[in-house]
Amino acid sequence: MPPTSNPTLRQRRLGAELRKLRERSGLTATGAAELLGVNQARVSMVETGRTPVSADRVRAMASAYDCSDERLIDALASMTGRRTRGWWESYREHVPPALVDLAELEHHATALRVALVIHIPALLQTTDHARALFQAVVPPMRQYEIEHRLTHRIKRQGVLHREDPPPYKAIIHETALRMGFGGPAVTRGQLKHLLDMSELPHVAVRVIPFGTDHFPTTGQSFDYVEGPVPQLDTVQLDTHHGACEFLDAEAQLSKYRAVLDRMEACALDPAESRDFIHHRLQNL
Predict the structure, then answer these.
(1) Which is higher by pLDDT, 212 or 21?
(2) Which domains does the chain possess?
(3) Which of 30, 95, 129, 158 could form a disulfide with 99 if both were Cys (CB 3.0 to 4.6 A apart)?
(4) 3: which DSSP letter?
């Protein structure tokens, strides 16, 4: 298979996990190449995601690296092959590459957990609310850029409306319910939509009200995307310069799982959260 000049996040992640397996086995890239009967350049290109790799090759690499975790091996094998030609690929020249990768990541997720303090989660935003956010970006975006970002965000939301949607848990601080982006009419529409989405069986919205003790975060928004096995989970952080940062080191995943668990522990339960949002809506 010819090399890929711009591997997706999923392809890069597969390569990174294969590199982790090799390093845990104590093998160098040269030693691995000798065991696999390929040259070192081939191993390096697989590990950077630049060369597609077959499921059989992944299993051979796992065997050479003395990996006996069958669930992990099966999950890695399922990530092989060429880039998935999902809807997000049509946006590769119109939105930042990380947003394209995020859409692909969400598409393959087995579960999604998000935590936000200032904003409503992207997958739960109305079109008007999202447009108001994009119009407030600094420096300002051109109108066509706003429209590309907007349609990309709305299409991302399709993951919650397909036949097999992943479980989705959103923790939202009361601050986000009071920000008022776009004005009162847009805010009312957004809160109503949030209530409607929270009624879906696979969607759980939980609110952390003002006055909660021991708030276990610095206030940074993040998504926790679960893979088929815990080793393939990913944390996505929003940055102040508008890009996405992806984390997948074991210690990082453990930290953000713990933060989410602590945030859930101090949040209202889903029914109480719906009542809270409804009260906020009535008092606008």
Answers:
(1) 21
(2) 9-77 (1.10.260.40), 87-282 (3.30.870)
(3) 95
(4) -
